[in-house]
């Protein structure tokens, strides 16, 4: 049986050693059983450029590279946290960067992969920020700044984002049905896989399926998609596995 794995929203950072450990474990024990691994954004909580790697970033790149060396291709779509992750790091980690969104052929079925933030169009303030942050010139400018200053700006943005998230209605920050419909219609797919909202679920609407990947807060989780077109959201912690169909 062949299967493909999808993960997102690990938000790796030094202050969450349990999640780091779960992920390294996943890469060593579980991911080698997959035909390919897709990371759909927010692998890291913060990313300010490829030019100065933290011990965590280095450790993760080595673990990813090990998996890729075992013959498991790894694909990466940027999240709203790690959108500055560049080709240098991707190469180091043995990952192939993909645009958001990306269409893939999943065992004969077309699937649309995305981080998911572009589906949250009701969040006007975030979308305005996203437009600025994804502007190539702005990114180039940011990356020319000294690392210390970049860290300061990133921390400021993070604090602002946390405050904003805590003060904004969750429904505003969720996907809107209009954007979801548009994504289905414009691509003609029946399957969308994304993360970002931290509301893991398998939504079914007639023949259309939208899988929202789990975030890694207290446990790990991933989508296992089998060549039989069966799929599962699997959760695990140090004590074992749980499966949600
Ligand atoms: Mn996100």
Descriptive account of the structure:
With 245 residues, this protein is an alpha/beta fold. It has one domain: Metallo-dependent phosphatases (Purple Acid Phosphatase, chain A, domain 2), CATH 3.60.21.10. The protein is built from seven helices and twelve strands. The chain has helices spanning 17-30, 55-69, 87-93, 124-133, 136-144, 147-167, 177-187, and strands at residues 3-7, 36-39, 74-77, 95-98, 102-106, 109-114, 191-194, 201-205, 208-212, 220-226, 231-237, 240-244. The strands form two sheets. It has a seven-stranded mixed beta sheet. Helix 1 (17-30) packs parallel to helix 2 and helix 2 packs across helix 3 (87-93). The radius of gyration is 17 Å and the shape is globular. The model has no long low-confidence stretch (mean pLDDT 95). Bound molecules: manganese (II) ion (MN).
Structural class: alpha/beta
Instruction: Give helix and strand order, one letter per element, not per position.
Output: EHEHEHEEEHHHHEEEEEE
- Name the assembly state: single chain
Small molecules bound: manganese (II) ion
Q: What's the number of extended β-strand segments?
A: 12
Radius of gyration based on Cα positions? 17 Å
* Average predicted local confidence, pLDDT: 95
Strand content is 15-25%
């Amino acid at each position: 049986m062949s299967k493909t794995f999808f993960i997102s929203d690990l938000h790796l950072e030094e202050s969450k050693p349990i999640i780091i450990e779960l992920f390294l474990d996943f890469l060593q024990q579980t991911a080698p059983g997959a035909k390919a691994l897709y990371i759909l954004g927010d692998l890291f909580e913060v990313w300010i450029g490829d030019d100065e790697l933290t011990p965590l970033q280095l450790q993760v790149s080595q673990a990813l590279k090990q998996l890729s060396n075992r013959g498991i291709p790894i694909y990466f779509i940027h999240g709203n946290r790690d959108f500055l992750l560049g080709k240098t790091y991707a190469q180091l980690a043995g990952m192939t960067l993909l645009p958001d969104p990306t269409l893939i052929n999943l065992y004969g079925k077309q699937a649309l992969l995305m981080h998911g933030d572009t589906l949250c169009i009701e969040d006007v303030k975030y979308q305005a920020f996203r437009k600025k942050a994804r502007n190539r010139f702005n990114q180039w400018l940011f990356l020319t700044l000294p690392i210390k200053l970049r860290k300061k700006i990133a921390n400021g943005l993070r604090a602002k984002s946390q405050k904003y998230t805590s003060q904004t209605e969750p429904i505003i920050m969720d996907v809107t049905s209009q954007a979801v419909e548009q994504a289905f219609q414009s691509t003609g797919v029946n399957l969308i896989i994304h993360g970002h909202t931290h509301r893991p679920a398998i939504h079914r609407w007639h023949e259309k399926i939208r899988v929202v990947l789990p975030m890694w807060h207290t446990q790990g989780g991933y989508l296992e998609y089998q060549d039989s077109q069966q799929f599962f959201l699997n959760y695990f912690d140090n004590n074992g596995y749980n499966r949600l169909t």
